[in-house]
Amino acid sequence: MRAIHRPQDISTCPIFENSVCAELLCSSGPILRIEYMLGLGLGNLQENLDCQDNSIDLQPRMHTYFTTGDLFFLPSEEVLERILQLSRYNMTCAPDERVLFSEDVKSGPSACTYMLDFRKLRWNDHILYTRHPNSGQVTAHTSPYPDLPPFVLPASPWIAALSTHGALNDNDNLLVPQIEMTMFSARLPRSFGMARPRPPNQPARILKTSVSSTTDPICKKPAPSKRKRNKRPIPYPVGSDESSRSSEDELRAKKRPKVSRKSKAVALGPRDIANAVCHPA
């Protein structure tokens, strides 16, 4: 059985360096729609883009390929099907009946493995190198890279799927484009809060399995590293109502209140907020 690798365990160079932290989604594009589909409140993700759910560590030589959309990690088909099912539910139900993405263990980080997708590069003579996560042994892979290992990400599979930024079309993968189109299938309310957590024995009406609280780490800050921000916005689908809407019609998150330098308040990520609601002090 092939060992599951981390995103920082692959490079175009056999010499592995200290990893850099990259954000899968940036503040451009339909970030508010993503928040709504994930069951979050207005601004919960936009104000916490550096949380663990939106961050991966990469080798410096691989960073540009990911931020330009030439490379990406594609979640397993089983998890994509689950995300599509929950996305359709969240975009059609009442705002307070949405399912919080971090509550569903079947679409969480621990349930998902990824394959590296490089179809846009059409590499014929490039050599890729993988580093075993335990032994550190480096292995060379030549095109078409039939022996690349599966990967596991600390980020949310929901965000990883949306970060493909339209790189997949209907001929490549039916699930990712359907998830993206589902996100634009309904108009958002003018304001919305985070979905209320459900008891473990109370599933959403359309789900065939119960939705329970995950035990995965709650949106921890990534380990200190040289951060490079992702500059790719998610394009609006052709024909969607968003492309013709003016900036005045677009929903906007509330501005973050300014914090005094003397204040010691710690910013909370989406999962921190979810955990606080689930387990109030």
Concise synopsis of the structure shown:
By secondary structure, the chain is of the alpha+beta class.
Secondary-structure map:
Blueprint: E1 10-11, E2 20-23, H1 31-37, E3 55-58, H2 60-67, E4 72-75, H3 77-92, E5 114-117, E6 127-131, E7 138-142, H4 157-162, H5 175-183, E8 227-228, H6 270-278
Parallel strand pairs: 2-8
Antiparallel strand pairs: 1-6, 2-3, 4-5, 6-7
Helix pairs in contact: 3-5
Structural write-up:
This protein has 281 residues and is of the alpha+beta class. The chain has one domain (7-195, 224-233, 258-278). Helices cover 20% and strands 11% of the residues. The protein is built from six helices and eight strands. The chain has helices spanning 31-37, 60-67, 77-92, 157-162, 175-183, 270-278; strands at residues 10-11, 20-23, 55-58, 72-75, 114-117, 127-131, 138-142, 227-228. The protein has a three-stranded antiparallel beta sheet. A hairpin with a 6-residue loop joins strand 6 and strand 7 (138-142). Helix 3 packs parallel to helix 5 (175-183). The longest helix is centred in the first third of the chain and has 16 residues, at 77-92. It starts with 9 loop residues before the first strand and ends with a helix. Residues 201-225 and 243-266 have low confidence and may be disordered. Residues 223-232, 253-264 have a biased composition (Basic residues). Residues 242-252 have a biased composition (Basic and acidic residues).
